[in-house]
Amino acid sequence: MRITTQGDYALKCVLSIAKNCNEGPVSISRMVQDEGLPLDYIGQLLMKLRRCKLIKSVRGAKGGYLLNRDASLISAKDVIEAVEGDAFEVICARKKALNNKKCLSSDCCVLKGLWGRLKRRIEECLEKETIQSLLLKRSGS
Hints:
Blueprint: H1 5-20, H2 28-35, H3 39-51, E1 55-58, E2 64-67, H4 76-84, H5 111-128, H6 131-139
Antiparallel strand pairs: 1-2
Helix pairs in contact: 1-2, 1-3, 1-4, 1-6
């Protein structure tokens, strides 16, 4: 498993939106300022989050972004999968680029069960952690 900067930045964007949404739509510049994120990269992530209906955009002079549902109903897994795809890809299920075939020994490999169990545990952990729970931890409550 490897969480990239996309997953990390996307979570930070959603946390910034959740933290500031009581004041209305949250602008990209506010997210960049709050989280110290690179401006040119954030637009792409917000577009992916919007496509997955985790956030919505509001146009206009006082526009920006809002959560599309309550922070307690958005998991870290939802956010990571919106921008990265699978939170954990099992190696033996991945197709090799050259011949477009799966690992030849994947059906009898002793490690396949280990990777499957690890995938389930990681996904369970990410599903349990919501944006609301992360906000509470961030504020020290």
